[in-house]
Design goal:
The complex is a heterodimer of chains A (about 260) and B (about 475).
Chain A lengths: L3 E10 L4 E10 L4 E5 L6 H9 L4 E10 L2 E2 L5 H6 L2 E4 L11 H16 L9 H14 L17 H15 L3 E5 L7 H14 L5 E6 L12 E6 L2 E6 L1 H10 L10 H4 L1
Parallel strand pairs in A: 3-8, 3-9, 6-7, 7-8
Antiparallel strand pairs in A: 1-2, 1-4, 4-5, 9-10
Helix pairs in contact in A: 3-5, 5-6
Chain B lengths: L1 H14 L15 E2 L6 H10 L4 H16 L21 E2 L13 H10 L1 H8 L2 E6 L2 E7 L1 H5 L3 E4 H7 L1 H7 L10 H9 L4 E5 L9 E6 L6 E2 L2 E6 L4 E9 L7 E3 L2 E6 L4 E8 L5 E11 L4 E8 L4 E4 L2 E4 L5 E10 L4 E10 L5 E10 L4 E10 L6 E11 L5 E10 L4 E11 L2 H8 L5 H17 L4 H16 L4
Parallel strand pairs in B: 3-7, 6-9, 7-10, 8-11, 9-12, 10-13, 11-14, 12-14, 13-15, 14-16, 14-17, 15-18, 16-19, 17-19, 18-20, 19-21, 20-22, 21-23, 22-24
Antiparallel strand pairs in B: 1-2, 3-4, 5-6
Helix pairs in contact in B: 2-3, 3-9, 7-8, 10-11, 11-12
Classes of the chains: A alpha/beta (about 260), B alpha/beta (about 475).
Chain lengths: ~260, ~475
């Protein structure tokens, strides 16, 4: 059974405007997929729709996670089942520390796994895990007691997204423009975090405009995404080609201006 | 239709865990006045308590003030209070005890359910527990007694320290200050009396717990706190009541004097059931270099009108009001604070966080006044409102009156709603909508809960979570 199967997925805005226009994609554990596309191609909408954002409506098709259609589930249930989205612009939650947020998120997941009964993680166990993950991802210790994303630099936000991923151990991680706002050192740390987590338990889908992050997260499969559709698929070499030649060759006549 | 009403009560009960009552004990009350208010009732209370003549007169005069004053036309709707249906004095037991096990079983059971005896063992220096009109349990740690700390219920204080009570009572809040201070002055019973001698710092909090059990109860405790020079006390009060379909009334008066270099912190976690009118007058006077802090959490009640006040009389006195008001379905929290700068180089901070949901109405009503001559005074007022849905309402009434030029004042106000994007972000990590909303609200009030001792911060967050759980689905 595939880990994530997207079948003929169509997504529209609340006003009915279609954005994603028929996507088929299968991601397995142990696999890293990259979706590359120009601005305005609908990549982020695809990411949000996969996660269950209420502003995006799935008008056709389905999303199977471990064989179960999750397209009617809320974001919370998708998260509990192992879908994870690393946000391009993570939101600030003033007054809630990174520590307290992480513990609540882990406990929410454990509760769901325990049939809806509370099963909180022991405070000590949590602390040991968190400190180890923070050290590994080079997240400064003081961030643990700061309010989630409140006043964080771009790099701090992205590192904390990856920290969340490491702590929540999802089945599939969708990374939406994770490289934006990262310097090379931060990018390396974040990429290493993803590389280490992808394995027999997890697959990853990296959504990006630029090839840069793919120098650090070498994809097994690259998909070119234009105007709401995958227009070409290939191996890592496709990313190199895109970097060298640009998206023009993949943009059908008539949508060029929209996609620029 | 009565079944509908019962269903509503049942529904509310399922969300409010303190809504239980002891229905059978009413017949066992030691003394109960009839319904309604009159000079006869006032006389009966004074008589029953065997009070000195000056107090008897104080009460009767106050009742005249109460009759003479109109109901306030501002704030919340108090016109529906049926003063004739209320019981103004109920004495549940004959004597006060200082061992929990000496209480009647059903009353002890109530305190156990509220966790008070347990809390006393863990982190309190003294406890007073008021049930209806009387403090039925009272205890202060012995070492504090030896240091000269006095912590008594107000009735005992009147008997044992009549001179002090007579000297201060009604001097900070005159009986005729407002309609409800007049009512309290006429029928007061219970409440706390605290005296902290010079230089004595009480590190653990003293707590009073106020419980209404009977239907249509009126609870009118009276509290007087005197913190002497260089002394410190943290006093905490909690309040709950059963849910009835008819209304109860809680109207307290709290007077505080903080002498030079003393510090008093007064924390309230008010969680009355949604059939209680909570109309309370609280005022403190801070002398030279003294500090007064009100931490005021209002989560329960049908209507709360409460604006803890600080008069900064001495030079360099400092005052803080930290206020949380959470209004859910059918609730109106008209909360806030009042600071008057009289001394030179005095400073104050008012921080208000109000939350409204399910059609609730929460507001900040504050007065900041700087008297002529209060040079070098500084004040900062911050009021933030969080509105959780389109049915709910938030109001801000920040009055400022300044008669001095040499002052530094700041005022900030924000109104926000929980954003869909914030919710989505948290939910994507597996939190339910209710959990995510509760987390955002807890974060919103964090600047205040972080000021609370750990146990109370946990309690406050738990209460917020309970409030939030009722809001979704």
């Amino acid at each position: 059974m595939a880990l994530l199967e997207i079948k003929n997925l169509h997504v529209a805005l609340e006003d009915g405007t279609p954005i994603v226009k028929g996507v088929d994609l299968t991601v397995n554990t142990n696999e890293k997929h990259a979706i590359m596309g120009p601005n305005g191609s609908g990549k982020s909408t695809l990411a949000y729709a996969l996660m269950g954002h209420p502003a995006y409506e799935i008008t056709e098709g389905e999303i199977l996670l471990d064989g179960v259609d999750v397209s009617d589930l809320g974001a919370d249930e998708r998260g509990q089942r192992g879908l994870f989205l690393a946000f391009q612009y993570p939101h600030a939650i003033p007054g809630v520390t990174v520590t307290s947020f992480l513990r609540s998120a882990i406990n929410a997941k454990r509760k769901a796994a325990n049939g809806g009964e509370d099963d909180p993680i022991a405070v000590k166990e949590f602390r040991i895990e968190m400190l180890a993950a923070m050290e590994h991802l080079k997240v400064p210790r003081e961030l643990a007691q700061r309010y989630l994303n409140d006043g964080f630099s771009g790099g701090e936000k992205k590192r904390v997204e990856i920290l969340q991923m490491a702590m929540l151990k999802p089945r599939i991680a969708v990374l939406d423009e994770t490289d934006s706002g990262l310097d090379i050192d931060a990018l390396r740390v974040v990429a290493n975090g993803v590389n280490e987590l992808v394995g027999p338990e997890m697959g990853a889908l990296v959504i990006t405009h630029y090839q840069r992050i793919l120098n650090y997260i070498t994809p097994d499969h690259v998909h070119v995404f234009v105007d709401g559709r995958i227009v070409a698929s290939g191996g890592a070499e496709l990313a190199q080609k895109l970097e060298a030649e640009g998206y023009e060759a993949f943009i059908p006549a008539g949508v060029a201006s929209e996609a620029s | 239709m009565s079944t509908t009403e019962n269903d509503v009560v049942k529904e509310i009960r399922s969300e409010y865990q303190y809504g239980f009552s002891n229905p059978d004990e009413a017949k066992d009350y030691f003394f109960k006045s009839g319904r309604g208010l009159s000079h006869e009732v006032v006389e009966a209370i004074a008589e029953h308590k065997n009070e000195p003549d000056w107090m008897r007169k104080f009460r009767h005069k106050a009742l005249d003030y109460f009759y003479a004053r109109p109901l306030p036309a501002w704030g919340g709707n108090v016109a529906e209070i049926d003063f004739d249906s209320i019981f103004y004095y109920i004495k549940p037991t004959e004597n006060q005890v200082d061992k929990w096990e000496d209480l009647p079983a059903d009353i002890l059971d109530t305190w156990d359910k509220l966790g008070i005896p347990e809390a006393e063992k863990k982190y309190l220096a003294g406890v007073g527990a008021q049930y209806e009109s009387e403090v039925v349990y009272h205890k202060l740690q012995e070492d504090l007694e030896r240091k000269g700390v006095i912590f008594l219920d107000m009735d005992s204080a009147l008997r044992e320290h009549e001179d002090v009570v007579k000297q201060y009572m009604g001097t900070i809040i005159p009986s005729n200050d407002n309609k409800f201070s007049a009512l309290n002055s006429a029928v007061w019973s219970g409440g706390s009396f605290i005296y902290v001698p010079p230089g004595v710092r009480i590190e653990m909090p003293l707590q009073a717990y106020f419980r209404i059990n009977a239907e249509n109860m009126g609870q009118f405790e009276r509290t007087l706190i005197i913190v002497d020079e260089d002394a410190y006390v943290h006093y905490v009060e909690g309040c709950t009541a059963p849910i009835y379909s008819s209304d109860s009334l809680h109207s307290a008066v709290v007077e505080i004097i903080v002498k030079p270099r003393g510090r008093c912190r007064y924390t309230t976690i008010q969680n009355w059931s949604n059939n209680v009118y909570n109309l309370v007058t609280k005022r403190a006077v801070a002398h030279e270099d003294a500090t007064m802090e009100w931490v005021d959490g209002n989560l329960g009640s049908k209507l709360t009108m409460k604006y803890p006040a600080i008069w900064l009389m001495g030079d360099r006195a400092h005052g803080e009001v930290l206020s949380i008001a959470f209004a859910g379905k059918g609730q109106h929290q008209d909360a806030g604070g009042k600071v008057v700068h009289v001394g030179k180089n005095t400073s104050s901070v008012i921080t208000s966080k109000s939350i409204s949901k399910d059609g609730g109405r929460a507001g900040y009503r504050g007065l900041l006044e700087v008297a002529s001559g209060a040079t070098g005074s500084k004040s900062k007022v911050v009021c933030d409102a969080l509105i959780l849905d389109d049915e709910s309402r938030s109001d801000t009434y920040p009055y400022i009156k300044v008669d001095e030029n040499d002052v530094d004042l700041g005022h900030e106000a924000t109104v926000s709603k929980i954003g869909e994007e914030q919710l989505f972000y948290l939910m994507s990590r597996g939190l339910s909508e209710a959990e995510a909303s509760a987390m955002i609200v807890s974060g919103f009030v964090e600047p205040i809960t972080k000021e609370l001792p750990l146990e109370y911060a946990v309690e406050m967050n738990r209460l917020i979570q309970l409030q939030m759980e009722g809001s979704v689905g």
